[in-house]
Each structure stands twice: as C-alpha cells, then as structure tokens.
Amino acid sequence: MNHEYIQALQNRKQELSKALKCAEADLKHAPEGRIRASQNGNGFQQFYHVTNETGFSGKYMNAKSKPLVSALIQKEYDGVFLQRGRKEIELIDNLIEFLSKELAEKSEEELHKSKRKYISPYILDEKSYAESWQNESFIASTYKPEEKIYPTNKGDMVRSKSEELLADMYYDLGIPYRYECKLVLKDGRAKYPDFTLLDVKRRRVIYHEHLGVLEDDEYRAKNLIKLNDYSKSGIYFGKNLLMTFETEYCPLNIKYIRENVMEMFVL
C-alpha cells in the first residue's frame, strides 16, 4: 500500500515538474511590469499597467489592451504557481523519503536479529510477503503431464517454448509466479490459468493466459469460453488479467511483453 502512495506522489511530482518548466519558460517571455486592478463607482473592474517595481500608479488599460492585460495577469499567476509548485515538490520529496524509510513494517529491524524469530509481524515487508506467498503450497494442474517438456530457470516444466520464455521472463524480473495453479471460480468450478502472478508492491494477484494456437477454431472457442467464465468471477483484462497472443504469422514478441510487464508491475 505504501508503494501505491509513493507511486502516486512520484506521478504528482512528475506532473508538477513539467508544469513548472512551462511556467518558467512563459515567464521569460512575459511583458514588463504588473497589473493593478481597481473598481470604479459603477462596480466595473479597471486595470492599470504598473511598470515601476515599487510604484502604485500606472497607465490605464482600455479594451484595446486586452492581450497585454491577459499576459500580465498570466505572469502574476505564473509567479504564484511557481512558488506553490516548488513548495509542493519539496513536501513530496520529504514525504517520499519518510514513507521509504519509516515504514511500520520495518519495525523488526529495530530488534536484534536474535529476537526477530520470536515475533509475529502485523504487516510483512515486500520481501517477506513475496517469500511467504512463494512458500505456500498450491494445487497444480495434472492435465497431460507428459506435455510438460520444457524446463524453466525456476525449475518448472511447462508445455511450450513460449511458456518457457514467459516463465523465465518472470523469474528474471523477480516476479513471483505459479504455473497452472488451481483457481476456483465463483460457481465452484476449477480453472488453471497459465500463470498466477504476485504483484508484490500492490499486494494483489494477477492472472496471465497465453493464447498460443489461435489458428485452431476449437482452441480459440474453448479459450473464449474460459475468458467469459473468468469475467463472471471478476477476472478480466484491464483489471487483474494479463493476456498474450501468438499465431503462425504473429510470433511471441518477448521483448515487447517484457516492457509492458515491467511497466505494469512498476519495477
């Protein structure tokens, strides 16, 4: 959860930094002077162009001066925006530093190593959380085990060369995964997604289905039904389901998939 806060703060900082650069550039081309506003007896707003830094009086700006009025008011806004934006970035940096170093789940680090094995943490840090998930037992598919002929770097046996590439990609990226792990849908039926992935930073499970024989009509229909079953259990593309595709004319592009996975898991 803290990672989500940090990521949101980093996104906000990035947005602010871009906006501040635009404001700084605009200020360099802003007209000289500033705007003084006042109201006449009829309640109409009047503007005066003040060029003396310490002065108060200025030249009255009529309707023909509208472009200059807009530019000077924008200049005033830019100055305020820069001041507030820089202050917000400073606060964001301080908050990110605090969240990164003072997480509650790091409390055990203040205890001597000899004492840590006796505690039951209320919140696991990312490393412990991942290790706990990976050490959990799970039920794997027993369907046609003789088809699992491709060894992975993790030590699994998978059914295709593409699945081997995908498994090794997850292993190399440090993303915990289970191959063909049993998933019980809301209607009680069991399915076995190709990969069950752990998004450690967001502490959620994501499923990955690789459709590798899309030319086959029966295979395609079977998997479309499976995807429909997933959606009825709240598992769908764009939320918690990752899908890759492959045909004879469109082979697996592991480089492209790797880039997308790295962005999705915020590595």
What is the compact description of this entry?
The protein is an alpha+beta fold and 267 residues long. It is 44% helix and 16% strand. The mean pLDDT is 91.
Describe the protein in words.
By secondary structure, this protein is an alpha+beta fold. The protein has two domains: 101 residues; 128 residues, Trna Endonuclease, Chain: A, domain 1 (3-Layer(aba) Sandwich), CATH 3.40.1350. It contains seven helices and eleven strands. The strands form four sheets. A four-stranded mixed sheet has the order 6-9-10-11. The radius of gyration is 29 Å and the shape is elongated. The two termini are 15 Å apart. The relative contact order is 0.08. The mean pLDDT is 91.
Entry keywords:
267 residues; alpha+beta; Trna Endonuclease, Chain: A, domain 1; 2 domains; 4-stranded mixed beta sheet; 3-stranded antiparallel beta sheet; 11 strands
Task: Give the SSE layout.
Elements: H1 2-28, E1 34-39, E2 45-50, E3 59-61, H2 66-101, H3 113-116, H4 126-135, E4 150-151, E5 157-158, H5 161-173, E6 177-179, E7 183-184, E8 190-191, E9 195-199, E10 204-211, H6 217-232, E11 241-245, H7 254-264
Parallel strand pairs: 10-11
Antiparallel strand pairs: 1-2, 2-3, 4-5, 6-9, 7-8, 9-10
Helix pairs in contact: 1-2
